Amino acid sequence: MEPAEPEPNRRSVLSLLTFGLVAIFNLIIGVPIVCYAIDPRHRKGAKSNFKLVEGVKLNEIGENTPVQGVIRDVRVDGWTLYPNDVIGRVWVVQKGTQPDLSSADKVTAFNAKEQSLKEAYLLVFTTICPHLGCSVNLDSAGGGFACPCHSATFTLAGAQAVPATNPAKRGMDTLEWEIDSADPNRINVKYQNFSTSIAEKKTI
Ligand code: FES
């Protein structure tokens, strides 16, 4: 007579349970990290703290016609990790003629220029109002920008439209930007937040 198959004992069941829980936990943590790593927005090329501006193609915008773009990145809220969340928005304003960016060398040379020289071609503003942080819209009446919260208005160059009565103590905040090395019709910005309600542009 053959001996009976031994039943799994309590310890092996607990081991299996623990192994299963660890595997599930690793999946929950690992999948967003892998998604982040393989996301093309985090490819080599842009400086690590520069983010792709989505929704703006330089060959599709016109001079003095602001276009809004979106910045996405990983966002952590408590224990929840959002691998591809909208972390900010920008206004892009073309001020001058698009430079010749027909080769990688020309893109590299353009990106090496001082920010002030790049801004003769393109200005990039955060949409966050420097007064108290509302989102600045286009001003359909004035042709520049207007904040819906306390009526601050700004020119297309981001300056206070009426400094004497403007609730904002400074103009709109520009962001550093560069041409994307993989697609010269796209830009990356150094997305930053700034203190509101003060005259000085100060990074938070
Ligand atoms: S927050 Fe924009 S005017 Fe006050």
CATH architectural category: 3-layer Sandwich
List all distinct small molecules, including ions and cofactors, that are bound in this structure.
Answer: FE2/S2 (inorganic) cluster
Helix percent reads: 10-25%
Which blocks of ≥5 consecutive residues have pLDDT under 50?
A: none
Shape: extended
Order of helices and strands: HEEEHHEEEEEE
In whole angstroms, how far apart are the ends? 79 Å
Whole-number tally of structural domains? 1
Structural class: alpha+beta
Profile the largest sheet.
6 strands, antiparallel
Count of β-strands: 9
Fourth-level CATH superfamily: Rieske [2Fe-2S] iron-sulphur domain
Output the CATH topology: Rieske Iron-sulfur Protein
Query: What would the average pLDDT be, to the nearest integer?
Result: 88
- The multimeric state of the shown protein is single chain
Q: Number of helical runs? A: 3
Q: What is the CA-atom radius of gyration, in angstroms?
A: 25 Å
The amount of beta strand, in percent, is: 15-25%
CATH level-1 class: Mainly Beta
Strands of the widest sheet, in order across it, are 4-3-2-1-9-8
